[in-house]
From TrEMBL:
The gene is rplO. PANTHER family: 50S RIBOSOMAL PROTEIN L15, LARGE RIBOSOMAL SUBUNIT PROTEIN UL15M. Residues 83-150 form the Large ribosomal subunit protein uL15/eL18 domain. Residues 1-45 are annotated as: Disordered. Keywords: Ribonucleoprotein, Ribosomal protein, RNA-binding, rRNA-binding. GO terms for molecular function: rRNA binding; structural constituent of ribosome. One of its GO terms (cellular component) is cytosolic large ribosomal subunit. The keyword DNA-binding does not apply. Gene3D superfamilies: 3.100.10.10. This is Large ribosomal subunit protein uL15. Residues 36-45 have a biased composition (Low complexity). Belongs to the universal ribosomal protein uL15 family. It comes from the Bacteria. Part of the 50S ribosomal subunit.
């Protein structure tokens, strides 16, 4: 007997949905027995009688009209540089030498985690070797005139 039960093959007509998987839909508004009368919408008011469009604020000036129109956009790919002037470099490192972004962060000239750009405001006499920074043309000219170099 046990062998016969083991050998039975599952047929398409034997398949049934799992218990509780098939649930009848609630028919609202069909008498007060179940979900009748207000049909689950509560009592009185605009939303109970008909739908209003998304964003409708009951006659108040809506948010999309309160905001300014067409004012450009902010690029998510914009690079924000920390700027340091040549004069600041001369103050922080009067002897010159090799300067990296880490040195500038330690000196408190820039914040960590941002690219650095050197601008040409001020004068220098010491020779700087800047590594890992960008520089404006005026800054580059002043640094090279003092005998320094810049490498990105």
């Amino acid at each position: 007997m046990a062998e016969q039960e083991e050998n039975t093959i599952l047929q398409m007509h034997d398949l049934r949905p799992a218990p509780g998987a098939k649930k009848k839909r609630t028919r609202v508004g069909r008498g007060e027995g179940s979900k009748g009368k207000t049909a689950g919408r509560g009592a009185k008011g605009t939303l109970k009688r008909y739908q209003v469009r998304p964003g409708f604020e009951g006659g108040q000036l809506p948010l999309y009209m309160r905001l300014p129109k067409l004012r450009g956009f902010k690029s998510p790919f914009k690079k924000e540089f920390q700027v340091v002037n040549v004069a600041t470099l001369a103050e922080l490192f009067p002897k010159g030498g090799e300067i990296t972004v880490e040195d500038l962060v330690k000196a408190g000239a820039v914040r960590d985690g941002y690219p650095v750009k050197v601008l040409g405001d001020g004068e220098i006499t010491a020779a700087f070797t800047l590594k890992g920074v960008k520089a404006s043309k005026t800054a580059q000219a002043k640094i090279e005139a003092a005998g320094g170099t810049i490498s990105e």
